[in-house]
Amino acid sequence: MKILLLSDTHGLLDKVYEIYGKLNHIDLIIHCGDYQRDAHTLEDTLGIPIVSVKGNCDGASRPDREIVETPAGKLLITHGHLEGAGYDYNNLLYLAEEKDCIAVCFGHTHVPMCEDFGGIYLINPGSLTNPRDGSNGSYAILHSTEEDFYANIVYYDTVCGSQKKKKPQGGFIRGLLNYSDRF
């Protein structure tokens, strides 16, 4: 099973359509909130099953969580704002243990993360439209079989970026040296 994991699209779906067109054999899309209506739009447009939850920008003041069954085990889906994502991951880990899940998929921070905490994966795809990690956006691809489970964070520029090499830019000191005759 191959899953496209998204979060925090905030009403901007152009990059999602662009990367989806370059991906092969996606079985499911999971949207971890902030603009759940984007998930409904994607489902209607792409015709692929989507599991989604509400985030803080959807007005979710109570936990909105889903469980997704995969060949490798269960995934807990949440936005993460009510569980303290970004400050402390213990609540997410406790929830995963309580629900017997192999992974928690969440968003909220707009920063990608994929880490194994003692056999439970915490996976945040970041945001394609409003990243907070200095990148041009990211998402995750999850692979699940009966024998294996793994996830990869994929950066938008590696799939859809320009192939032109950029010239290195100098900084403040270089500018002073190049234009030192002005002083």
From TrEMBL:
PANTHER family: VACUOLAR SORTING PROTEIN VPS29 (PTHR11124). This is Phosphoesterase. It comes from the Bacteria. Residues 1-145 form the Calcineurin-like phosphoesterase domain. SUPFAM superfamilies: Metallo-dependent phosphatases (SSF56300). Signal peptide: none annotated. It comes from Emergencia timonensis. Its cofactor is a divalent metal cation. Gene3D superfamilies: 3.60.21.10. Keywords: Metal-binding. The keyword Metal-binding applies. Pfam families: Metallophos_2.
